[in-house]
Design goal:
The protein is mainly β and 404 residues long. Helices cover 5% and strands 49% of the residues.
Length: 404
């Protein structure tokens, strides 16, 4: 199976040469654009590109969720966007959606309108001020945003009063929800900044202008968005800020980021079969489901995934850690030992992504057995792994005859 998978990936890589392969996987069948506008200060140009090649044409539906802080809050069903094969088309918010008089801002969800919902496309928006200065907001495949982390941050925001030679600078922040309500708070790590606590129902947005009001001039500040109710941590809270000058309305866009993805294939700290400890570590307290090395003739095999280029540090934890050793084995080419094999820990530096699996992220095996001369009574264990890009939570595959 390992050989077949490797050959398949190699074939895909060869066949892909000459095609417009994205180096960031941003195509989707349902794409969220976090902010769009049609106002005296900013106008959004929404750009959509068909990636399905559907002939003679296909369409993408467009829904505009106008913010609670906008002129006419609520959902607007807009005119679908028709695309010929691989066509790129630019539309405006006002041109596609029924907008009343006033200033409008909110978020957009674009969806493949085919019956099978499998026709891929790309999307982003260019937000421009009256002088055509502006910023780009990427469209995110809707499954790539949101999740279970309760906190997210926007870093490096600032606020400056106007001077004789420079305009006022202010930071505006936005929050939005998708399918579920969220109660949240917003804080800025500068003295005297007003904290915010609020609630949004499903598919709502709210803007907070001049988020650092009351703090005076500041820079290099961090805005933190927190879901206040642990029962709502699985719910999506989309947060971001724009920093603008109040003369030309030139601005930038910064989406809030989490340090840990709500994705068990990309945990930066994995505590497999062990309890999480303080200070970004795992403890020696094992879960009841912890695997057991039964004897000196047997090894335990686990499956994981590493995202090159990266450095991965793993070690065995638990009361019997000193009796065990661990190694990392490449799935393809089969049985290639990447690191470890003699002690209870290893450090593995992948090298460039291009040198592994034709640029495709690869699966690996974590293998654990007894050290030579150790106490070989059955031993339960856990594994701590740390990585920069995130690493798949190890999955127990079973036991095999010991060979290292």
């Amino acid at each position: 199976m390992s050989i077949t998978r490797g050959l398949l990936l190699a074939t895909i890589a060869v066949l892909s040469v000459g095609r417009a392969n994205a180096q960031v996987d941003a195509a989707g069948t349902k794409i969220l654009i976090p902010v769009v506008s049609s106002s005296v200060s900013f106008v959004s140009q929404i750009v959509v590109k068909d990636q399905s090649g559907t002939s003679p044409s296909r369409s993408v539906t467009m829904q505009f969720y106008e913010a609670q802080t906008s002129s006419t809050p609520g959902l607007k069903a807009c005119t679908p966007i028709t695309l010929t094969p691989f066509q790129t088309k630019t539309v405006s918010l006002a041109g596609q959606c029924p907008l009343a008089a006033g200033n409008h801002h909110g978020f957009v969800i674009l969806t493949d309108a085919s019956g099978t919902k499998d026709k891929l496309f790309y999307a982003f928006t260019r937000v421009e001020n009256p002088a055509t200065n502006g910023f780009t907001v990427e469209g995110y495949p809707i499954g790539h945003i949101g999740g279970g982390d309760p906190d997210s941050e926007v870093v490096g925001v600032k606020s400056k009063a106007a001077t004789a030679s420079k305009p006022q600078i202010q930071t505006n922040c936005f929050v939005a929800t998708l399918d579920n309500p969220v109660s949240y708070s917003i804080s800025v790590d500068v003295p005297n900044a007003l904290a915010v606590s609020d609630t949004l129902a499903a598919f709502q947005m709210r803007r907070y202008s001049d988020i650092g009001a009351g703090a005076g001039d500041f820079e290099n500040a961090t805005v933190t968005f927190t879901k206040d109710d642990p029962a709502q941590w699985p719910n999506t809270l989309i947060a971001f800020c724009t920093v603008q000058d109040n003369a030309s309305f030139n601005a930038d866009f910064r989406i809030a980021k989490t340090w840990e993805a709500a994705d068990p294939t990309r945990f930066r700290l994995n505590c497999f079969a062990a309890s999480f400890g303080a200070g970004d570590t795992c403890t020696d307290t094992l879960q009841p489901s912890a695997p057991i090395v039964p004897d000196a003739a047997t090894k335990v095999r686990l499956l994981t995934r590493v995202y090159a280029p990266d450095t991965v540090n793993c070690k065995i934890v638990g009361g019997r850690a000193s009796d065990l050793k661990i190694r990392l084995v490449r799935d393809f080419p089969p049985d290639t030992v990447a690191a470890g094999g003699t002690t209870g820990s290893f450090t593995y530096t992948t090298g460039p992504r291009s040198g592994i699996g034709n640029g495709f992220h690869q699966t690996y095996f974590l293998e654990v057995d007894f050290k030579d001369g150790a106490n070989t009574a059955p031993a339960a264990f856990g594994i701590q792994c740390k990585s920069g890009n995130g690493m798949m939570e190890p999955y127990f595959l079973g036991t095999l005859p010991d060979d290292f």
